[in-house]
Amino acid sequence: MIRIKTEKQIDGIRKSCKMLSAMYRELIPQIKPGIQTIDIDKWVTDWIIKAGGRPVFLGYTIKKKPFPASICISINEEVIHGIPSKRRIHEGDLVSLDCGIELAGYISDQAVSIEAGKVSKPVHDLNAVTMECLYRGIEAVKAGDRLLQVSRAVENHAKKMKYGIVEEYCGHGTGLELHEDPQVPNYPHGPNPRMNNGMVFAIEPMINMGGADIEVLDDEWTVVTADGQVSAHWEHTVAVFNGRTEILTDPLESLIFL
Ligand code: MG
Ligand code: MG
After folding, report:
1. Ligand 1 center to 19 CA (angstroms)
2. Is residue 28 one of the residues assigned to a domain?
3. Is residue 1 assigned to a domain?
4. How many CB atoms lie within 10 A of CB 39?
5. How far is the CA of 8 from the centre of ligand 1 (A)?
6. What confidence tens digit (pLDDT) does each residue in 115-124 have?
7. What is the whole-number distance in angstroms between the Cα of residue 178 and the centre of ligand 1?
8. pLDDT number for residue 118
9. What's the rounded Cα separation, in Å, for the pair 96 and 33?
10. pLDDT above 80 (res 217)
11. Residue 2 lies in a domain
């Protein structure tokens, strides 16, 4: 069931989104070679709690063990749901960050892929195109139109580069719970509801340099590409209301593509 939000609820979700993006603006400059991912997670947890929010990923569970951190950190061939650890970030890594905050009952969700130091040109191109896929998807959001035109816009852009599009994971309704209906796949597939006023959803292309296939590691969370090639991930939370589209999370690419 798709939950239609009131203007007051969208206002609450917007505040949560602005807090999340403010956290990222402070975090992104710290993503440099040498930092341990567990230290990133500690910093994020402290920041969110100090700001009066709740790290919504911490302890999150769907039919498996709870996620043990506030932020997913997925490096190189890791697609999503990477668990922070003693691992250090190295020069040339592509570091995908995904985080969510609950503020006064309202939930936000945003992901970015950050280039640690100087990455190879193919990795940079993958990252830039994945970010563009996100915005192609957002441009396709129109009140009253069908949702899968968003999926088609993402797919068309990724396909131009012959990248693999992850099929098993996708965007989703959000705002009152982390994952709500509808699913927002990155290729046209499944239910195709209209994008009505009051809908809030996350669009999140996960794009692989090689094939589309993925695997889940023994930690039950970390999703990796089956062929070991690099993957990128970008996400915004968007709202449709009063016949228009608003990106509730803030654009962060100017901090990443310097
Ligand atoms: Mg996310
Ligand atoms: Mg999401």
Report:
1. 15
2. yes
3. no
4. 13
5. 23
6. 999 999 999 9
7. 9
8. 96
9. 14
10. yes
11. no
